[in-house]
Specification:
By secondary structure, this protein is mostly beta strands. The chain has 2 helices and 8 strands, in the order ββαββββαββ.
């Protein structure tokens, strides 16, 4: 299922919006919102989940730690639980290059 992410190197995990989580098949009623995250907007609760695979182009990472956000959000966040498992990434002006 395609998901549009905002890349957030300050986010420790991949964070799914409730809407994207539902599109991926997660049932909000079955999730346990026990993980606390400190954000610029205060503390929020998330439900820990695991994503079988996250792929961006030809770059794939299996078994990615993620969280479903307890409050609505505009975009899901691609955090360090994905980015930190890459060989690296480079940012220059308006582009980001992922290295396996």
């Amino acid at each position: 299922v395609p998901v549009r992410f905002l890349i957030d190197t300050g986010a420790s995990d991949v964070v799914l919006s409730p809407r994207d989580a539902a599109r991926l098949g997660f049932d909000k009623a079955e999730l346990d919102f026990t993980r606390r995250y400190r954000t610029a907007n205060g503390t929020v609760l998330g439900a820990p989940v695991r994503l079988d695979r996250v792929s961006i182009g030809s770059v794939s990472v299996d078994a990615v730690r993620a969280s479903v956000n307890g409050a609505p959000m505009g975009l899901s966040l691609l955090g360090m639980s994905f980015l930190g498992r890459l060989a690296g990434y480079d940012v220059s002006r308006e582009s980001m290059t992922l290295r396996r």
